[in-house]
Amino acid sequence: MTHEDAATVKDQQEALQKLGEIRRSIDNLDAAMIHILAERFRCTQEVGKLKAEHQLPPSDPEREKLQVARLRELADDAHLDPEFAEKFLNFVIAEVIHHHQRIAEAAASQSSAK
Ligand SMILES: O=C(O)C(=O)C[C@]1(C(=O)O)C=C[C@@H](O)C=C1
Question: Domain locations in the chain?
Fold first, then answer.
């Protein structure tokens, strides 16, 4: 092995060590994201039940507009792409609306069976 080759291997070993450290943080952050999302869905399940019990519509476009504007601003401040933040929020909210619809359908079929 030449002197240069040995230096490259050493550089790569250091880079791989750094990569491993960064990945440990990424794994922790991914776990935190899952816990945060689970907690958010726990809250929205409550909202879904409340809406179904009181015949309120599953979606609230006005509320969504406020959430998008707020999250875009937060993303911008945090140097995160606001377009991505908006897409991510819309993706989560679309899933929540599906859950709300399913809860409303279940509540409607229960009350018609009575
Ligand atoms: O706040 C509500 O009314 C909800 O149902 C929650 C939520 C959300 O996930 O944040 C979902 C659907 C609505 O269109 C708006 C917001």
Answer: 3-113
Indicate which residue's Cα is closest to atom 3 of ligand 1.
60
**Residue with CA nearest ligand 1 atom 12:** 59
The pLDDT profile of the chain, 114 residues, written as one tens digit per residue, is 899 999 999 999 999 999 999 999 999 999 999 999 999 999 999 999 999 999 999 999 999 999 999 999 999 999 999 999 999 999 999 999 999 999 999 999 988 887
Q: What is the ipTM metric for this complex? A: 0.99
Protein residue with least CA distance to atom 8, ligand 1: 93
CATH, domain range 3-113: 1.20.59.10
What are the tokens at 101? Answer: 């619809």
Q: Is the CB of 44 under 6 A from ligand 1?
A: yes
CB hemisphere CA count around 68 (13 angstroms): 15
Is 68 touching ligand 1 by the criterion CB < 6 Å?
no
